[in-house]
Every structure is written in C-alpha cells, then in structure tokens.
Amino acid sequence: MKLITAIIRESQLDQVREALMHADISRITVSRVSGHGQQVREEIYRGRIIIPNLTPKIKMEIAVNDDYVDTTVNTIIEAAKTNGGTVGDGKIFITKLEECIRIRTEERGGSAV
User: Fold this and answer.
1) What pLDDT does 65 receive?
2) DSSP-derived secondary structure letter, 22
3) Would the pTM count as exceeding 0.85?
C-alpha cells in the first residue's frame, strides 16, 4: 500500500478529480494548503508590486494498493500539467503506507483501502 500526496494548482482540482474518477480511483482526500516553491507570482496591492510568500494550492491524499500506484500517478500528471508543463504545476510524493484500518468494519490492510 502507498499514500500518494499531490500538491496541485487550485484551478486544476476539478480536472484532476474527474480524471481520477474516470480511472476508477474515487477515494481521495482534498485540503486547501499554502506554500512556495519555484513558482513566483506578482500581485499589485495599493499600487505596489508585491510577491506573496505563500501561494494557495490543493493537497490531495490518495491511499492505493500497489497495483494502482502507476495509474494514479500518471493520471494526476496528465490532468494537472498545464500548457505542456509550467513552473508551479505541483509535486507528487509517494510514501509507504504501513497499515490501513477501516473503523466501521475493523478491516485491515489492502481490503480497507
């Protein structure tokens, strides 16, 4: 089992979610987060150009069995990439998931995902 964490642009959320559903990946958790990386954007505030420290993003977390890792990652990449790929499109992190427990039925492991 793996936990796939994707940080994407806010504007790409619907497109990524629909692509994941089309790939039969329907169990996701979405959070609004802020951060910064290589993406730099300028805003005008009271007539002055400022560069905010943190950019709003979307964080998606998806727990999948090992067989679905490549499908999930490739689907996110294809749906989140803008204009053939630009700075600020996001990142994907894959971490090992030691255990998953469904509270309702107390199932454990891959069947609980």
Assistant:
1) 93
2) H
3) no
